[in-house]
Design brief:
mainly alpha, 3 helices, single chain, 61 residues
Length: 61
């Protein structure tokens, strides 16, 4: 793999996309690895939250 191509896979945007896809697929190991790369290489921690209206079990009035 070329250095430019390898750099594409290590961009913050690509790592976030991998984390989201792994999370949706239930692949905890891939999610953990991508999160660690994102932190080590870019100093970024990613947290997922729910929008106030999207929480399950909360009555909507």
């Amino acid at each position: 793999m070329s250095a430019a191509r390898e750099a594409d896979y290590d961009s913050p945007a690509m790592l976030v996309a991998i984390i989201v896809a792994a999370r949706r697929a239930g692949d905890r190991e891939l999610e953990r690895d991508a999160r660690q790369k994102l932190l080590d290489r870019h100093g970024v921690r990613l947290n997922f939250t729910h929008a106030a209206g999207d929480r399950q079990g909360v009555p909507h009035e």
